[in-house]
């Protein structure tokens, strides 16, 4: 495995310096174009061909070393942010983006004066950041993202990105129920997506060597922890963890829906949707020929 080659920080200041400072505080960041959009997927990964959907011919996670896949490229890893493979993007970047959900916050993006007036009447005070046309109201806590929840109002948290426009003013308030209600449903604990699991038994009908409860429990617990500890590249971490579990237990019938449910719950707690969990599980099975 090749390691990223660090580049001179002063060559890309001040954007990179700011990005590294944010990353050191646990905020996953990525470079954005001058028009505030993310750098597009590389040709290899166009249309999520690297594994975003099970219908694609090339299953598996994105192995591209450069910024790719918008919010999923956000990272707190300084070695990635300063690597030579990201240099071109930082040189061309006009803004810094960050993943609100990965930082444990939700951004209410107010795009005009009417939206701001609504927020002042309907939402509790919190930290605010001025934008080109309106304001970002930032709350402590994550949730599902949604665009157009009201005229001029977007909610950005999990599986989304926002521009970094400075620390803002005011104190972070807890995420209120009125913001959660904007996406159309009340919050609920992450639940695993139900999926039918069918794995072949050992050839010859031999006894499964992994049926020791302690062995299996330790493996599932380690997999849960690996997902929970991920600070960036969530898609890739989830896929590789699923792949490792299936490599060890996918051919001998050890895994139950309860075990799989624990893995899906851990992934959804990091912002993965039930569909993405199912897609990653399916891609891992396809890679192993299960």
Please provide a brief summary of the model.
This protein is α+β, with helices and mostly antiparallel strands.
Average pLDDT for all residues: 77
- The helix fraction, in percent, is 25-40%
What radius of gyration results from the CA coordinates? 21 Å
Task: Sketch the major β-sheet.
Answer: 6 strands, mixed
The number of helices is: 9
Low-confidence stretches: 1-8, 52-60, 185-206
Features:
globular; alpha+beta; 290 residues; disordered N terminus; single chain; 13% strand
Give an overview in words.
- By secondary structure, the protein is an alpha+beta fold.
- It is built from nine helices and nine strands.
- The chain has helices at residues 15-24, 78-81, 87-92, 113-122, 177-181, 213-229, 234-249, 257-269, 274-288; strands at 29-32, 95-98, 105-110, 127-130, 135-140, 146-150, 153-156, 162-163, 173-174.
- Strands 3, 4, 5, 6, 7 and 9 form a six-stranded mixed sheet that branches. A three-stranded antiparallel sheet has the order 1-2-8, covered by helices on one side.
- The protein starts with 14 loop residues before the first helix and ends with a helix.
- The model is unreliable at 1-8, 52-60 and 185-206 (pLDDT under 50).
Topology:
Elements: H1 15-24, E1 29-32, H2 78-81, H3 87-92, E2 95-98, E3 105-110, H4 113-122, E4 127-130, E5 135-140, E6 146-150, E7 153-156, E8 162-163, E9 173-174, H5 177-181, H6 213-229, H7 234-249, H8 257-269, H9 274-288
Helix pairs in contact: 6-7, 6-8, 7-9
């Amino acid at each position: 495995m090749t390691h990223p080659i660090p580049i001179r920080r002063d060559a890309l200041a001040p954007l990179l310096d700011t990005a590294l400072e944010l990353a050191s505080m646990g905020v996953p960041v990525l470079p954005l174009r001058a028009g505030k959009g993310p750098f597009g997927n590389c040709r290899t990964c166009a249309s999520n061909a690297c594994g975003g959907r099970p219908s694609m011919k090339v299953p598996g996670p994105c192995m591209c070393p450069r910024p790719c896949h918008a919010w999923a490229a956000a990272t707190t890893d300084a070695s990635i942010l300063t690597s030579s493979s990201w240099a071109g993007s930082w040189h061309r970047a006009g803004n810094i983006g960050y993943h609100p959900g990965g930082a444990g916050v939700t951004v209410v993006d107010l795009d005009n004066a009417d939206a701001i007036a609504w927020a002042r009447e309907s939402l509790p005070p919190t930290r605010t950041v001025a934008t080109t046309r309106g304001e970002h109201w930032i709350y402590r806590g994550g949730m599902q993202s949604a665009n157009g929840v009201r005229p001029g109002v977007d909610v950005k948290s999990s599986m989304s990105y926002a521009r970094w426009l400075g620390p803002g003013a005011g104190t972070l308030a807890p995420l209120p129920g009125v913001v959660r209600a904007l996406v159309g449903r009340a919050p609920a604990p992450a639940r695993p997506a139900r999926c039918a699991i069918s794995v072949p038994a050992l050839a010859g009908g031999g006894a499964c060597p992994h049926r020791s409860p302690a062995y299996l429990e330790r493996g599932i617990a380690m997999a849960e922890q690996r997902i929970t500890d991920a600070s960036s590249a969530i898609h890739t971490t989830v896929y590789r963890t699923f792949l490792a579990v299936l490599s060890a237990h996918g051919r001998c019938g050890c895994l139950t829906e309860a075990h799989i449910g624990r893995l899906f719950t851990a992934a959804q707690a990091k912002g993965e949707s039930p569909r993405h969990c199912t897609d990653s599980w399916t891609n891992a099975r396809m890679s192993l020929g299960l």
